[in-house]
Design brief:
This protein is mainly alpha-helical. It is built from 19 helices and eight strands.
């Protein structure tokens, strides 16, 4: 009789979602395959934790967090060019840069499938944690909260990228027709957002504050992270009062005095950090796969492939604001001396590189100690300012914006009207959060995409580019259950 295994992909989309057992766990190798009959071996605190560790490990994957993700979120936008050399397309990064992508563009399949693989790990954890009765009840409750936070995080990526997507909310049973339909049928954007909200509300109830974790658990999801992500989710839906309410629950954080310090190893998980993906260069397999390498300076004395290079448009946006503090902490310029004394050659292949992806200690290996900062306290201030302003509370919003500007050592905003402050906040988000994987989505949600792309020499097609195309492999496998996004 064929054995049943957990911690493998239970999704039946053979062409798109299946993953080998060796890919299922990166740092929890003993549970790459677990016979259901042997579940008792994991019926303890360590075993329970391993289920959720596997979800975090998924964020270290090349397909999840590296080349495709960089291309889809940055190279598409006005913040970045493809970079590298003219002859090196990066598979499809030239297509992403030109906004001429199609359903067959490989980066979208990577984005889609990797997030569903991660969601499957969340669903496995949520299925099996209640069965581990010998594990601590309080630990299992916390781990359940972490799994729901991470599942919400991945669905937020999917809904921002593609609009409505399949809602896979449990581990599918192979051969079960209802589960086939679940995996191949798109739900509406509104249904996905409602699911995300429920997961985050549950997570906020179950998770501890950041200060309650010990050093061994640094980087795990926290109550503050759940409230922060939910505030962002509400902002995207224009649920402004709910966004404000969630921002008010994000407590115990503060701005890092010097902006550049956020992105050094010494600034990881600091007082401003709400949630970031952890990379370690010390142990093989625990760095974010080639995240630093693909964005490193290319050419003489370089350490990388040179992709995702800051645009002149972005550089000039900082300069026109008098914002040298954040400009010189975000953009490496050839000929520049970095904070650790490294000098970037004057004949590097590109004028600019992404400083936020730089690793001082590991420039000669593929996986480094660089973390991806996803939620910071500065963004909470900007989310609250934007939401307050949209509700007509402009005078209350202005000091929040100015807190962020003060840290950047630039003058307080001169905006006094709702319209002017709206523009100022949107501009501030760009300067503060560049290369933190939000710019494209910000342009779309605020209606700036067409004009911003035109200013950067790109053509944003209204009625099409608000969402990316669903991968053609998924559409083919769906066999009519799910339609492609409009005009693709």
């Amino acid at each position: 009789m064929k054995k049943k295994y957990i911690i493998i992909s239970a999704l039946v989309l053979t062409g798109l979602f299946n993953q080998s057992c060796s890919d299922d766990f990166i740092e929890v190798s003993p549970t790459e395959q677990v016979n259901v009959d042997d579940l008792s071996l994991y019926d303890n605190n360590e075993g329970a934790t391993s289920f959720v560790n596997s979800i975090y490990a998924k964020f270290l994957d090349w397909d999840m967090s590296s080349f495709a993700w960089i291309g889809v979120t940055s190279i598409t936008s006005d913040d970045a060019d493809k970079g590298s050399t003219p002859g090196d397309t990066g598979s499809d990064k030239d297509i992403l840069d030109a906004l001429t992508f199609t359903p067959s563009t490989p980066s979208f399949e990577s984005l889609f499938s990797s997030n569903y693989q991660g969601i499957n790990r969340c669903n496995q954890a949520l299925k099996y944690l209640p069965q581990l009765n010998n594990a601590s009840t309080s630990l299992r409750a916390r781990l359940t909260g972490e799994a729901k936070f991470l599942r919400a995080f991945m669905y937020f990526t999917l809904v921002r990228s593609f609009g409505g997507v399949p809602l896979v909310d449990h581990v599918p049973i192979l051969g079960n027709q209802d589960d086939v339909e679940m995996q191949l049928t798109r739900k509406s954007k509104e249904e996905i957002y409602a699911f995300i909200e429920k997961d985050l509300l549950d997570a906020a109830e179950a998770l501890p504050n950041k200060s309650e974790y010990g050093t061994a658990d640094v980087g795990r999801a926290t109550k503050g992270a759940a409230h922060a992500l939910l505030a962002k989710v509400y902002l995207y839906q224009k649920k402004y009062q709910l966004a404000i309410d969630q921002c008010n629950l994000v407590t115990g954080y503060s701005l890092t005095p010097t902006f550049l310090d956020i992105y050094k190893v010494s600034g990881e998980n600091n007082a401003e950090s709400i949630f970031e993906i952890q990379g370690s260069g010390n142990e093989k397999g625990k760095g974010i796969q080639q995240y630093t390498q693909v964005q490193g300076a290319r050419g003489t004395g370089g350490w990388g492939w040179g992709f995702n290079t800051p645009t002149q448009n972005l550089y000039d946006a900082y300069t026109s604001e008098g914002d040298t503090e954040r400009r010189d902490a975000t953009i490496i310029k050839k000929g520049m001396t970095l904070y650790d004394g490294r000098v970037v050659a004057t004949d590097a292949d590109n004028n600019y590189y992404n400083y936020k992806a730089y690793s001082s200690a590991y420039t000669s290996q593929s996986s480094t100690d660089t973390n991806i900062r996803y939620l910071r306290y500065a963004e909470i201030l900007l989310i609250k300012a934007e939401a307050l302003n949209e509700l007509g509370q402009t005078s209350t919003a202005i000091p929040l914006l100015n807190q962020v500007r003060d840290r950047a050592k630039i003058a307080n905003t001169t905006a006094t009207t709702q319209s002017a402050l709206r523009t100022a906040i949107w501009k501030e988000r760009r300067l503060e959060l560049a290369f933190e994987h939000d710019r494209w989505f910000d342009l779309v949600r605020t209606g700036q995409a067409e004009s911003a792309m035109a200013a950067n020499g790109k053509t944003f097609v209204v009625g099409k580019h608000e969402v990316f195309p669903l991968p053609q492999t998924f559409i083919t496998e769906a066999k009519g259950r799910s339609a492609q996004n409009p005009n693709y």
